[in-house]
From TrEMBL:
This is Probable tRNA/rRNA methyltransferase. InterPro entries: Alpha/beta_knot_MTases, MRM3-like_sub_bind, Ribosomal_eL30-like_sf, rRNA_Methyltransferase, SpoU_MeTrfase, tRNA_m1G_MTases_N. Keywords: Methyltransferase, Transferase. The keyword Transferase applies. Belongs to the class IV-like SAM-binding methyltransferase superfamily. RNA methyltransferase TrmH family. One of its GO terms (biological process) is methylation. Residues 14-93 form the MRM3-like substrate binding domain. Residues 121-255 form the tRNA/rRNA methyltransferase SpoU type domain. It comes from the Bacteria.
Length: 268
């Protein structure tokens, strides 16, 4: 049974509409309210499959009878508030282009960091949301659950990062706003970091035991404090490029780790 929509909202002065618009555009507002917005059927489906709760669903008037939207609405808990917006109003606040006009406001999880002695991914001030989302998606794909983000890392739950992650966030434990010292105090797993100052390439390392992979700032790389505690590894670049994009480098590291542990043995 599809939950009944509320009355049609036509004014941009509506309290929820104003809040959602600010969450879509301002990191400060997301941090202040502890909320974010997911847009589109794919991300909402990913949240539903993870039993992630919704604070509010917003859908445009003309999209309300779309079969995909109807299917989404039938899967919502009956207590989920649904707000129907006039088409022009919805279009004025959405951050996606033309598509299926449905979005949801959700709480940003803030788990407490405990000691970590298994595989994890440390994002050390990775600033581009697309890179962060790609790294989260890759981590989820290879089975790494714990993600530690130092304070200058792009918000893992921003709308842009959520789109880049394609819903991977719902399968991960993400710890944000950490100091480098907090990372060092809580991660017991050996640290590995890509570096241009070593000749030992990744294929010469044994990656079968738990690893804490560190991916650093796009321009400055991994900070000295973390690098001093890590095993440096190099990714081969026979044609002599200066460096790889951090999301590409991280994906290569994670998949080489997976290959050494599982993939080769599965071929036997």
């Amino acid at each position: 049974m599809v939950a009944n929509p509320t009355e049609l909202i036509t004014s941009d002065k509506n309290t929820t509409v104003k809040l959602v618009k600010s969450l879509l555009t301002q990191a400060r507002q997301r941090k202040k309210h502890g909320l974010t917005v997911i847009e589109g059927v794919h991300l909402i489906d990913a949240a539903l499959r993870s039993d992630y709760p919704f604070d509010q669903i917003l859908v445009s008037e003309s999209t309300h009878k779309n079969p995909e939207v109807q299917q989404i609405l039938t899967r919502l808990p009956t207590y989920t508030p649904i707000l129907t917006l006039a088409d022009a109003l919805y279009e004025s606040i959405r951050s996606l282009g033309t598509g299926i006009d449905i979005m949801a406001m959700i709480k940003v999880p803030a788990p407490s960091l405990s000691m970590i002695n298994e595989d994890c991914l440390i994002l050390n001030d990775v600033q581009d949301s697309g890179n962060v989302g790609t790294l989260l998606r890759t981590a989820a794909a290879v089975g790494i659950k714990n993600i530690l983000c130092t304070s200058a890392t792009a918000q893992a739950w921003s709308p842009k990062t959520l789109r880049a992650g394609m819903g991977a966030q719902f399968a991960l434990n993400i710890y944000e706003g950490l100091s480098v010292q907090e990372v060092l105090d809580h991660v017991e797993t050996p640290l590995f970091a890509t570096s241009s100052h070593t000749d030992t390439v990744i294929y010469q390392h044994d990656l079968k035991s738990p690893i804490a992979w560190i991916m650093g700032h796009e321009g400055q790389g991994v900070c000295d404090e973390l690098m001093q505690c890590a095993t440096p590894i190099a990714l081969p670049q026979p044609n002599g490029q200066e460096s790889l994009n951090v999301a590409i480098a991280g994906s290569l590291c994670l998949y080489e780790t997976l290959r050494q542990r599982n993939y080769a043995s599965n071929l036997v």
